[in-house]
Design brief:
By secondary structure, the protein is an alpha/beta fold. The protein has 2 domains: 256 residues, Rossmann fold (3-Layer(aba) Sandwich); 95 residues, formyl-coa transferase, domain 3. Helix content is 38%, strand content 13%. It has 18 helices and 11 strands. The protein is elongated.
Length: 416
């Protein structure tokens, strides 16, 4: 059975996360994604992160997360020969995907006018840091910078302290999600009209998309929301994180009317069951401007009367109570709900053996997708891909000679 994007060829020239993570999504959907690497290879191959004691031959976690399932073509795009080779590949492609800055794309012969002259039906998709126009259109971007500029950083942490950095590269990853969604939309348009087009999005735009509810609240009311620590910035209810007696955190959302008396009794707060204010589900859930501080303080005491395990046992039998345990990444990878939906997959990693990673997260009933697990070596697919566009072994060998010695050896093993 074909996968959703089977037969679609994507050429990706990206770095770090925001572009490459979009390529992973498209690969999981069945597209052939060709990663263009520089002579030195993608820097994320050697980025190890904190606490990484894996052997040197093991790929970096960022490399795995943002590049699994792709083919690697390693070329020197500073040379006319390297650019000509990529242009031959572009002529066969459906999508060009990138997060390089405009001046770099021009230097490498990967700007839109050049590629459009090679392939008029091409979807040319670019995710920049801060958008294609404006005074900072060409500014360099790292995830924490876009968290700050988009306002997210200001909303994380206690109200009386400096803001906290979000513990994931959410700016980059959200930008990649928006880029992948934009590519899919452009492919639908091309299917209907035959017209390829340029798609522009940005990590900054993705930050605004993630926070549209909160930012629109400020725009519509004139009230600028502020961070509230363990509680929501814009839900004036019990909604928030509470500590158990064993110092684990559990998030409580809505407790409906029929569960409220049992919930109060379990908290040791039986008097709240018929409290004149807090017995009203709308008032305790944030549908008013009533002062919620008293209820939050009482619930903090009540939640601390039990261990996390006791709370989970109680809540498990009451599926209409909205809650969530604040989990570590180890716990996420072992979560029965995560595993039941096949969100985690196992891959063979050089120097490590079998390891668990996040896989395909989307289900299709008629054209199922699958997590792609291979991690390409730099230039691993040079011979295959360049032969596929009609290049001779002599031409491929000449391109190989422009690369560092290690890359030359790898390409030589492929038969050139």
């Amino acid at each position: 059975m074909p996968e959703p994007l089977e037969g679609i060829r994507v050429v990706e020239a990206g770095i770090a996360v925001v572009g490459p993570i979009a390529g992973v999504f498209l690969a999981d959907m069945g597209a052939e994604v060709i990663k263009i690497e520089t002579p030195l290879g993608d820097a994320t191959r050697s980025f190890r992160g904190i606490g990484n004691q894996n052997p040197p031959e093991a790929p970096g976690p960022w490399m795995v997360a943002a590049n699994r399932g792709k083919k690697s073509l390693q070329l020197d795009l500073a040379t006319p020969e390297g650019q000509a080779a990529v242009h031959r590949l572009i002529a066969t492609a459906d999508v060009f995907l990138t997060n390089f800055r405009q001046d770099g794309l021009v230097h490498m012969g990967l700007d839109e006018p050049t590629l459009r002259s090679v392939n008029r039906r091409l979807v040319y998709a670019l995710c920049s840091g801060f958008g294609p126009r404006g005074p900072d259109a060409a500014a360099a971007m790292l995830d924490v910078a876009v968290q700050a500029r988009g306002g997210l950083l200001n909303m994380i942490g206690p109200p009386d302290e400096a803001p906290y950095v979000v513990g994931s590269v959410i700016g980059d990853t959200a930008g990649g999600m928006l880029l992948a969604l934009s590519v899919m939309t452009a492919l639908v348009v091309r299917e209907r009209t035959g017209v390829g087009q340029r798609v522009d999005t940005s990590a900054l735009g993705a930050q605004l998309f993630l926070q549209a509810m909160e930012i629109d609240h400020t725009g519509l009311t004139g009230h600028c929301l502020s961070r509230q620590g363990r509680f929501s910035s814009n839900i004036n209810g019990m909604y928030g994180a509470y500590a158990t007696v064993d110092d684990r955190l559990i998030v409580l959302g809505m407790v409906r009317a029929k569960d409220w008396p049992d919930f109060c009794a379990f908290c040791g707060l039986a008097d709240l069951a018929d409290h004149p204010v807090w017995s009203n589900v709308l008032l305790r859930s944030g549908f008013s401007n009533v002062d919620i501080g008293e209820l939050r303080d009482l619930l903090a005491q009540g939640v601390r009367s039990h261990t996390l395990q006791e709370w989970v046992a109680f809540l498990h039998d009451r599926p209409n109570i909205v809650y969530g345990v604040v989990q570590t990444y180890d716990e996420v990878l072992a979560d029965p709900q995560v595993l039941a939906n096949d969100y985690v997959t196992e891959i063979d990693v050089s120097g490590l053996g079998r390891r668990r990673i996040i896989g395909n997260l989307v289900g299709f009933s008629a054209t199922p997708a699958s997590a792609k697990t291979s991690i390409p070596g730099p230039g691993e697919h040079n011979v295959e891909l360049l032969r596929s566009v009609g290049m001779s072994d002599g031409e491929i060998a000449a391109l190989s000679a422009q690369l560092p010695t290690g890359a030359q050896r790898m390409i030589a093993k492929q038969g050139v």
